[in-house]
């Protein structure tokens, strides 16, 4: 086996070769395109703070990242390969570091600031390893802290995923960062006071004029209260983004801030995945810009969307536009915001603002950042490539969103089996156990033959924990009806392209329903079978619903194995938040899958797969391109 240190050396040598090639490209290729895309430094007006005797104008450049999700290097740990996707994006803070250095060199480091909009410490095996396997609470330093410190962030807002591993891990990460973690609406359960720094003020010197004071406010989506209920209930509350900003922005203005920028982990497209489960919306960045006076720009996060530049007219300050930008996710983009200020009547006034994004695939990784996390990277690669069992036949999740698959049956079997074992000897032990699972990762595949940690982890990419709740047969049907809204209303039997039948527009968010909000339900000791008739309107699609071959009695009792995200209200599924909780041992589902594989030694789909569901149109089976012909993936 290759040692971690050798693996690091190999990785570094490989990267050095790639950097040399990319350095040549800077002269007339991608690098030239990168530098051409940025506004020229010499476009700054005469008398700017960059060098005049008495500044009458000043340009501030604010760089931004968001939703980096534990990505430092351009690496896919689930595939154990350099990251690639259909648009050929690159990822990771090492790429961002190169872009940041170039922008600081061009614009002047003294007039440049770097912010992040949250979701930093969760999302990859690298992040998981330093939260659970070799936790930072035990003394290790988080690779994301190493990288962000080296790049030189000025501040970062908290995202909802910062709370996934509990407050102790988050506080430890905070202590390892050389910059403040901001969250004005993460407040003490009792006092209502922010438990993290709500904002910070940066001062920029000018020549012969007053310094420019910039306030940075951090806000997070209130959905944390639902999604991480087990980690925050009784300790932290999350008031509304707009409501809290209306308290905090006046304080920044009173403190003399000439410019106020909000780093907001909340999407710009209005709506909430949790419906009306909370009085505050999940995605409120646009509303924030419209309704809170004194805000000049919002660095948007959470939605994993690319917003190059969006100017939102203020509803409270006539004639004012608020700048919004979102740099996609995972370090694929760097937002560049430019603010031109003019000194008038003894104070600085914003004269204009604009933004654009830079693509990380145009530059090589920064060697300093890559070297800092090299050993961490090698250790995690060794971990995810450890063999934990074998599989008798390959299982893929590529088609799980439109056909019954062994991969989803595997998740449901392990979840239901764990809940049933936990309920042994309790009054509920005789209830039939069902389970729900969603197709999180279209690329997930467990091969025939040796199975590694990364194979299983790729099937379940989120850090969810397992619960058991009590449902009636009527609630089971209502749950499945809600889930079936994922499919578009289609007549005919096809064949259809997958996108022609999946990803219907959600009435609550106005966006396509994501795969992770489509739940598949299966039974443990007997099959739960149903058809989804996509020719019928939403709410009338579940037909032929049976358990153990018999129609499901609306009054019958069932136990549902369910993840904490869903049970807490994530996705807005009916009945789950008020259902009696029968089991909640805070066991991670991904680890359950890994442990089950390790203990059993062999994954044999014939021992747990059943034909649970299928798509039909007016009772006739629907054919979707890519689906198995007479078999199962």
From TrEMBL:
One GO molecular function term of this record is:
metal ion binding
Domain 5'-Nucleotidase C-terminal, first and last residues per copy: 387-576
Kindly give the Gene3D superfamilies that the UniProt entry links to this protein.
3.60.21.10, 5'-Nucleotidase, C-terminal domain
Which cofactors, if any, are listed as required?
Answer: a divalent metal cation
Q: Which UniProt keywords apply?
A: Hydrolase, Metal-binding, Multifunctional enzyme, Nucleotide-binding, Signal
Where is the protein found, in the record's own terms?
A: Cell envelope
Q: Residue ranges of the Calcineurin-like phosphoesterase domain?
A: 61-305
A single GO CC term for this protein reads: outer membrane-bounded periplasmic space
Q: Which Gene Ontology biological process is one annotated for this entry?
A: nucleotide catabolic process
Q: Which CDD domains match?
A: MPP_CpdB_N (cd07410)
Read off the SUPFAM superfamilies from this record: 5'-nucleotidase (syn. UDP-sugar hydrolase), C-terminal domain (SSF55816), Metallo-dependent phosphatases (SSF56300)
List the catalysed reactions: a ribonucleoside 3'-phosphate + H2O = a ribonucleoside + phosphate; a nucleoside 2',3'-cyclic phosphate + H2O = a nucleoside 3'-phosphate + H(+)
What family is reported?
A: Belongs to the 5'-nucleotidase family.
Q: Which PANTHER family match?
A: 2',3'-CYCLIC-NUCLEOTIDE 2'-PHOSPHODIESTERASE_3'-NUCLEOTIDASE, 5'-NUCLEOTIDASE-RELATED
Name assigned to this protein: 2',3'-cyclic-nucleotide 2'-phosphodiesterase / 3'-nucleotidase
Q: Which organism is it from?
A: Pedococcus dokdonensis
The opening ranks of the lineage are: Bacteria, Bacillati, Actinomycetota, Actinomycetes, Micrococcales
């Amino acid at each position: 086996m290759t040692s971690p240190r050798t693996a690091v050396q190999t990785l570094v040598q490989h990267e050095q070769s790639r950097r040399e090639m990319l350095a040549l490209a800077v002269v007339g290729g991608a690098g030239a395109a990168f530098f051409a895309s940025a506004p020229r430094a010499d476009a700054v007006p005469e008398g700017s703070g960059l060098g005049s005797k008495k500044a009458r104008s000043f340009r501030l450049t604010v760089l931004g990242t968001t939703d980096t999700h534990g990505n430092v290097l351009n690496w896919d740990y689930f595939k154990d390969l350099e990251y690639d996707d259909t648009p050929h994006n690159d990822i990771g803070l090492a790429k961002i570091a190169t872009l940041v250095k170039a922008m600081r060199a061009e614009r002047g480091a003294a007039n440049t600031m770097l912010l992040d909009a949250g979701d930093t410490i969760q999302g990859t095996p690298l992040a998981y390893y330093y939260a659970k396997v070799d936790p930072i609470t035990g003394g290790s330093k988080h690779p994301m802290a190493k990288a962000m410190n080296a790049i030189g962030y000025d501040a970062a807002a908290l995202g909802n995923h910062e709370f996934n591993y509990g407050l102790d891990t988050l506080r430890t990460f905070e202590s390892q960062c050389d910059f403040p973690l901001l969250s004005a609406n993460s407040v003490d359960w009792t006092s209502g006071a922010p438990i993290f720094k709500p904002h910070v003020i940066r001062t920029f010197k000018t020549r012969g004029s007053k310094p420019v004071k910039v306030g940075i406010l951090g806000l997070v989506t209130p959905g944390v209260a639902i999604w991480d209920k087990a980690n925050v209930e009784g300790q932290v509350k999350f008031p509304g983004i707009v409501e809290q900003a209306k308290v905090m922005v006046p304080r920044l203005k009173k403190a003399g801030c000439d410019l106020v920028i909000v780093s907001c982990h909340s999407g710009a497209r209005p709506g909430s995945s949790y419906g009306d489960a909370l009085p505050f919306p999940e995605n409120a960045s646009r509303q924030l810009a419209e309704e809170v006076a004194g805000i000049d720009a919002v660095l948007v996060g959470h939605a994993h969307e690319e917003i190059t530049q969006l100017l939102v007219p203020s509803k409270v300050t006539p004639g004012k536009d608020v700048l919004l930008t979102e740099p996609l996710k995972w370090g694929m983009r760097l937002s560049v915001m430019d603010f031109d200020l003019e000194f008038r009547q003894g104070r600085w006034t914003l004269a204009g603002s604009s933004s654009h994004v830079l693509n990380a695939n145009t530059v090589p990784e920064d060697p300093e950042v890559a070297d800092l996390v090299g050993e961490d990277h090698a250790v995690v690669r060794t971990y995810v490539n450890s063999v934990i069992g074998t599989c008798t036949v390959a299982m893929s999740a590529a088609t799980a969103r439109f056909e019954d698959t062994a991969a989803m049956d595997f998740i449901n079997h392990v979840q239901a089996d764990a809940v049933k074992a936990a309920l042994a000897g309790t009054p509920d032990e005789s209830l039939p156990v069902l389970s729900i699972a969603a197709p999180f990762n279209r690329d997930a595949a467990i091969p025939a033959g040796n199975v590694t940690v990364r194979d299983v982890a790729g099937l379940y990419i989120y850090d969810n924990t397992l619960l058991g709740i009590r449902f009636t047969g009527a609630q089971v049907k209502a749950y499945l009806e809600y889930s079936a809204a994922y499919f578009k209303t289609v007549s005919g039997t096809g064949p259809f392209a997958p996108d022609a039948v999946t990803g219907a527009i959600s009435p609550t968010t106005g966006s396509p329903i994501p795969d992770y909000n489509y739940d598949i339900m299966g039974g443990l000791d007997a099959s739960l079978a149903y058809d989804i008739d996509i020719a019928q309107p939403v709410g009338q699609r579940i037909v032929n619903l049976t358990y153990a071959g018999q129609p499901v009695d609306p009054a019958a009792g069932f136990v549902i194995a369910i993840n904490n995200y869903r049970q807490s209200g994530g996705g807005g599924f009916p009945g789950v938040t008020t259902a009696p909780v029968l089991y909640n041992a805070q066991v991670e589902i991904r680890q359950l899958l890994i442990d089950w594989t390790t203990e059993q030694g062999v994954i044999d789909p014939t021992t747990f797969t059943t034909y649970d569901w299928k798509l039909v149109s007016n009772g006739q089976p629907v054919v979707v391109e890519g689906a198995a012909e007479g078999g199962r993936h």
